[in-house]
């Protein structure tokens, strides 16, 4: 489960580099986006959206997750489907508008996707708690990003 959390956070962190592209390029930083260019980075973001889901399926198939102890319930399926849809939506948002003011708004969706993926893992143990966390976190992330309407802030 730790590896899945690391993957979710790595994908979300990857998207944060888009909004800093111009500054990183001018400063000579060698991020993936600066090194390979915006077009390849946008395509890599689309592929990255599927990595956590593919890893979960692979880990289950390899027996790395204790399948007999986990509850693959309807609430898990709903939370997981929501998380995957947010991950794909985030990738599409960054593909369409990777920089500028829109990148700041896209980050809110990226954070929601990351948190939703972690909540889906919680749903394996406690589905009701996961749904409560999903509702609360989605709203609270929106409120936090609403505090700073200025994308440059």
| Beta strands, count | 0
* Helix fraction bin: over 70%
What average pLDDT do the residues reach? 90
**Global geometry:** globular
- Sheet-strand content, in percent, reads under 5%
Notable features of this structure?
153 residues; mainly alpha; 77% helix; 0% strand
Summarize the structure.
The chain is an all-alpha fold and 153 residues long. Helix content is 77%, strand content 0%.
Structural topology:
Elements: H1 2-16, H2 21-27, H3 32-36, H4 38-62, H5 74-96, H6 101-123, H7 127-146
Helix pairs in contact: 1-4, 1-6, 4-5, 5-6, 5-7, 6-7
Molecular structure report:
This protein has seven helices and no strands. The chain has 153 residues and is mostly helical. The mean pLDDT is 90.
């Amino acid at each position: 489960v730790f590896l899945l959390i690391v993957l979710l956070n790595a994908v979300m962190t990857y998207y944060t580099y888009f909004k800093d592209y111009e500054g990183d390029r001018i400063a000579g930083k060698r991020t993936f986006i600066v090194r390979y260019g915006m077009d390849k980075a946008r395509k890599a973001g689309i592929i990255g959206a599927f990595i956590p889901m593919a890893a979960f399926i692979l880990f289950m198939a390899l027996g790395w997750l204790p399948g007999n102890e986990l509850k693959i319930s309807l609430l898990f399926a709903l939370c997981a489907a929501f998380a995957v849809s947010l991950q794909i939506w985030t990738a599409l948002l960054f593909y369409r508008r990777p920089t500028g003011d829109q990148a700041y708004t896209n980050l809110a969706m990226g954070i929601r996707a990351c948190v939703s993926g972690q909540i889906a893992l919680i749903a394996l143990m406690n589905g009701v708690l996961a749904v409560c966390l999903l509702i609360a976190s989605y709203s609270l992330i929106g409120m936090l990003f609403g505090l700073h309407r200025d994308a440059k802030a």
